[in-house]
Design a protein that fits this description.
The complex is a heterodimer of chains A (419) and B (103).
Chain A lengths: L1 H4 L8 H10 L6 H9 L35 H14 L8 H32 L2 H50 L10 H36 L4 H28 L1 H6 L5 H5 L8 H11 L5 H37 L9 H42 L2 H26 L5
Helix pairs in contact in A: 2-6, 4-5, 7-8, 7-14, 8-13, 8-14, 11-12, 11-14, 12-13
Chain B lengths: L1 H7 L4 E5 L4 H13 L4 E4 L6 H12 L7 E4 L2 E4 L1 H9 L3 H7 L6
Parallel strand pairs in B: 1-2
Antiparallel strand pairs in B: 1-3, 3-4
Classes of the chains: A mainly alpha (419), B alpha+beta (103).
Chain lengths: 419, 103
């Protein structure tokens, strides 16, 4: 019976009722895929080891009337429904392999039944008119196409699932890394990337600034040691002072792009960070350092330097307290309303309001950094005004040497042997 | 503007502030540390606050015109100017001249 081995099969009209098809994933056989590999372009062949033929009794289309008697047992139908569930990725924890095993068992059962029935059908079609045969062939082709389409869809869904799992893993790792302090920018966020660019740009510019300062200070040192004239020294001191102004300009720009980068002091070495105050050094500490280095000072100079130190201290205290008030205000804002498990709709509005207010408060931090930098700049300029040119030169050398020692300490610290 | 000028000349040190502004808080703290007792007008708590804010914006030219510090009826500046004055040693003499400090 040649016809039983040819293209007659149980194909479903894809156009007719594709939704029905997806609801009947009994047709999605792993072994069908195998079959497809063996005979990729042929419609179903009815060999002895044909994988499936069962059609759920719920199918009621006219074209299937002749074959609707294939499934006889209600248990097979139950199996079919199990299949359906196990193949839907989001409902069942079963793996595809498990479901395939189930499939295979059921498939084997049904193979027998279907095999017999198929012969019946094919016999009847063989006895039918040629028109029926053409129709049957068309139907078979359609069913094959639908089957392939379902297999492709299944493969795609499986791919999506594994990608999703991988994505979750990667996100978890990223979260872990962020928590450990690694700065990892989020992708696709323009403003965020500008912040990152601001931080990176500043780090690079600051490194350049340090190099330039080293150069200028070395020249100044040579000039001081070689007892250069006041005019010469004066020019060099002015140059170093102007160079200090440059870093404050850089910091202002960087604070606009990424205030928390400046505030964090990550652009400084660890030992310098130890003394960090509002994104930089503490002027009053610097003046304490200088007082001991700059003798002999006239009485007026001593008084002025002391006043400068005291004013700086008072201004620093005021800014520190303002910053503390900001932090407290921010904490109070974020803590207002209910925290914890309750999540009523009213809380959402509160939440948005909280966030809006908090954003405003965070924006104020930039102003504090600006004022702190202003203090630092003013301290240097006032110091320059109070001291003579030669004293200013020595002061600038002392300041640079102090920070250099801190930076060297950082390097030693980072390179220290750890047990 | 008249109200601002009027209020500013009533006391030796007058600060126009916003109650929720933390920089204003810092400046208030500074003047407290210096031992003076400034008159403080919170623009967000004053019924004429909005007009005063507009007047200050016109005077100072900044979107956020607080904390605005007047000493002896004359405008000294916002935070940055006040701090610079202090480090320059000119703030305390101003206060003394206006009679805001006893020492």
């Amino acid at each position: 019976m040649h016809s039983t081995r040819t293209s007659i099969g149980f194909h479903i009209h894809d156009s007719d009722d594709s939704t029905n098809l997806t609801r009947n994933p009994i047709f999605e056989f792993k072994s069908s895929a195998q079959l497809e590999e063996e005979t990729p372009s042929h419609p179903l062949q009815f060999h002895n080891d044909i994988p499936y033929t069962c059609i759920a009794p719920s199918e009621t289309r006219q074209t299937r009337q002749p074959v609707s008697n294939l499934i006889s047992s209600s248990t097979s139908r139950g199996h079919c429904e199990n299949w359906g569930e196990s193949l839907m990725a989001d409902t069942s924890p079963k793996t595809t392999d498990t479901s395939t095993d189930v499939d295979n068992d059921d498939k084997n059962q049904r193979m027998e039944a279907g095999h017999v029935s198929m012969f019946t059908v094919s016999n009847s079609s063989e006895r039918g008119k040629p028109g029926d045969q053409k129709t049957m062939r068309r139907l078979a082709q359609n069913r094959e196409a639908a089957r392939k389409s379902r297999l492709r869809k299944k493969a795609y869904v499986q791919q999506l699932e594994s990608s999703r799992i991988k994505l979750n893993q990667i996100e978890k790792e990223l979260q872990r890394a962020r928590q450990q302090g690694l700065f990892i920018p989020a992708s696709g966020d323009q403003s965020h990337s500008m912040g990152v660019n601001g931080a990176l740009a500043f780090d690079a510019e600051y490194a350049q600034w340090l190099d330039e300062q080293n150069k200028q200070v070395n020249e100044l040192r040579t000039a001081v040691n070689s007892h250069a004239s006041d005019n010469e020294l004066g020019d060099m001191v002015d140059g170093v002072m102007a160079h200090w102004d440059d870093v404050f300009k850089l910091k202002t720009i960087a604070a606009k792009a990424d205030v928390f980068h400046i505030l964090s002091g990550m652009w400084k070495t660890p030992a310098e960070r130890c003394f960090l105050w509002l994104g930089g050094f503490r002027s009053s500490e610097l003046l304490k350092l200088l007082a001991s280095q700059l003798e002999p000072l006239t009485e007026k100079q001593l008084l002025d330097i002391c006043n400068l130190q005291q004013s700086s201290q008072q201004a620093e205290d005021a800014l520190s307290q303002g910053m503390e008030a900001l932090q407290q205000s921010l904490a109070e804002t974020l803590a207002s309303g209910t925290l914890g498990p309750s999540s009523s709709p009213g809380n959402v509005t509160n939440y948005m309001g909280q966030m809006a207010m908090s954003i405003g408060k965070l924006g104020a931090i930039e102003n504090f950094i600006r004022q702190a930098d202003n203090l630092r700049q003013q301290t240097l300029q006032q110091m320059h005004r109070i001291l003579t040119i030669r004293q200013s030169a020595r002061a600038l050398l002392a300041i640079h040497d102090y920070f250099s020692r801190l930076r060297a300490l950082s390097s030693l610290w980072l390179a220290r042997p750890q047990d | 503007m008249d109200r601002v000028v009027g209020l500013a000349s009533q006391r030796a040190v007058v600060i126009f502030s916003v109650s929720s502004c933390c920089m204003c808080y810092a400046i208030k703290t500074l003047f407290g540390e210096l031992g003076c007792n400034p008159a403080i007008y919170e623009l967000d708590e004053d019924p004429a606050g909005r007009e005063m804010e507009l007047a200050l914006i016109r005077l100072i030219g900044k979107k956020k015109p607080v904390p605005a510090v007047f000493i002896g009826g004359r405008f000294v500046g916002l935070t940055e100017q006040v701090m610079s004055h202090h480090l320059g040693g000119t703030l305390v003499p101003l206060l003394r001249d206006a009679g805001a400090l006893w020492l």
